[in-house]
Each structure stands twice: as C-alpha cells, then as structure tokens.
Write a structure and sequence with these properties.
The chain is mostly beta strands. It is 15% helix and 37% strand.
Length: 260
C-alpha cells in the first residue's frame, strides 16, 4: 500500500493523486488540481495527454490513503470513497484565516480566539446583523467573522467598480460555515432591505435567501478571488429604492443566519 501510494504522489504539490488521474505523453502522473496550472509535465517537460489514466484510477480505489491532516496529528487511513467525508469532520483539520494578508491556520477550537485577537473590529455576534454598503468610486470587499447559532461563519460582501452606463454595479454576498458540508447544509441566510416612508408610514421590503457553504468549499487559492455558487447576487438597480443619500450613497441591510 505504501509503495503504491508513493507512485500516486503529485510531482507539483506532493499530495496524493486521487481520481481523476491525468498523465503526460510519457506516462508521468499529475493531480487534477495541478494539471490545469501546468502547460508542460513537471517531470519531463512533455505535453499532457488529454486522456485520463483509468488504470491508475482503479488502483487508487483499492488503496487506503492517509488523511491530509496527518502532519497535524491524524493517524487515520481510509479508502478514497471515504476520504473526503473523514477530512470534513477530522478533529485535526486546519482552517485558513479568510482575511486578506493573514496567513494564519489553526484548529477549529482556535479560530475564535484568533479572530478576537487579530480581527476584533470585524467580529460580530448574533444571528441577525446590520450591515451597510457605501458606494464610492472603488470596488470593495467587506469581510466579517460571525458567531451565531453555536457556530462560526465567514461573511463576504463584494461590490464591483462603477461600470460604464447603462450597466449597474454588482453586489455579491456569501456566508460560509467553519465546519463540514453536512453541517453547512443545516443553515441558510437571508438578506433583507427595508424602506420606510416617514410621512405615509409605508414600508417596503426586499428579501433574498441562500444556503450556506462549508468553509472548505473555498479553495485556498481562491480564498480572495471570485465567489463560487450559493451566493446572493444583486445589482445596484434592484436595490436603488433602498439607498440612502447622506453626503454619500449607501444601502443598509439586515443579514440573518438561521437553521434550516
């Protein structure tokens, strides 16, 4: 088992190669994450074969792989079909801080203390929170660490740069739970915009809903890049009735995280 696992070691990232397995024209293997980053084989500099190595994929299904958290103390080994589920729930799993320019990684039990110590101005507590987007001339990214419902969440809000008319600015909101995909599926979040007319007493609301993602579904290399699925995407045109003008243009809203 150990000798075969060494044959399934990616020459670029040095992690074990799991299906789908790719190879160059000379048969050197590479993992599915690194193959999209490399123009040539890192072993022989030849081109990659567009066909997968189905034989090695069958071999990998017969082997027991160590948990990716082995370096942090996990001793478990499991078949590839069980590997992802185990690593989602692994007690030795490490989380990377999602704030820009922070390279900290640590156990789940250490996440809260790290946020309080290093990002306290961006820590909010409670399942219902008030946020405000200020529209200036630049794009912006707002990040908050949310402690609610006995869990920890990463809140990401992004506003695009002002486009050329008649296009509108894009607002994207995503919430990720520090935990497994199974646990993330037990929560959803709402974004609520409210407009109240003082004279008439008229109230208008706009509510959007989306499910939360597991924090592990943010690839480390995409941590500070574009969002994936399970997000709320809006345009400045949609929320224009809820904007306020007080020397600057802004839109307040309520974000709620609730159990499903």
């Amino acid at each position: 088992n150990g000798q075969l696992l060494r044959l399934l070691e990616c020459p670029t990232c040095f992690e074990h190669i799991v299906p789908p397995v790719y190879q160059c024209l000379n048969g050197h293997l590479i993992c599915n994450k690194c193959v999209v980053k490399c123009e040539n084989c890192p072993t022989c500099r030849n081109y990659f074969n567009p066909e997968r190595n189905l034989y090695m994929e069958k071999v990998s299904n017969l082997l027991k792989f160590p948990c990716k958290n082995t370096a942090y103390g996990c001793k478990q080994q499991m078949f590839i079909s069980l590997k992802e589920d185990h690593e989602q729930e692994c007690l030795y799993r490490h989380y990377q801080c999602f704030f820009i320019n922070c390279s900290w990684k640590g156990f789940h039990s250490e996440v809260h203390s790290h946020m309080i110590k290093n990002h306290n101005n961006n820590v909010v507590i409670g399942s219902e929170q008030f946020f405000e987007i200020i529209f200036d001339s630049d794009s912006q990214t707002l990040k908050s660490f949310l402690s609610a419902e006995g869990e920890y969440f990463a809140v990401n809000i992004r506003v695009s740069e002002p486009p050329t008319p008649p296009l509108f600015r894009q607002i994207k909101i995503q919430v990720n739970l520090f935990g497994s995909k199974v646990k993330a599926n037990k929560f959803k979040f709402f974004v609520e915009f409210t407009q109240r007319k003082k004279r008439s007493g008229f109230s208008q609301k706009l509510i959007y809903e989306s499910s939360t993602l597991s924090y592990s579904e943010i690839d480390e290399e995409e941590m500070h890049s574009d969002f994936k699925r399970n997000r709320i995407s809006l345009t400045s045109e949609l929320i224009e009735p809820f904007m306020r003008r007080r020397g600057y243009l802004s839109v307040p809203f309520i974000l709620k995280v609730v159990p499903v």
